[in-house]
Request: fold
Amino acid sequence: MTVRLYAQRKGWDVGRVTVRLRHSRIHAEDCMECDTKAGFLDRIDREIELSGSLDEAQRKRLLEIAEHCPVHRTLKSEINIRTSLIT
Reply:
């Protein structure tokens, strides 16, 4: 949604935006770019397909924008989940 809104605001012909996600659990020691080196990590592989008539600079900028969307930022940050039972 963030990519589409940005492209529309710029007046770019973004066409269809398709995002595919794949979730897996990996050994932390197998992740070269990760800070955590022990235990397991959740990995999400994301593929973004842009079907509009965009030049290479526009495609590169939209990829940068995808890195800054609210959902991406939330998933990349430390998450603390607190659960309580309501009776």
Q: What stands out?
A: The mean pLDDT is 90. The chain is about 30% helix and 25% strand. Residues 2-76 form a domain with the GMP Synthetase; Chain A, domain 3 fold (CATH 3.30.300.20).
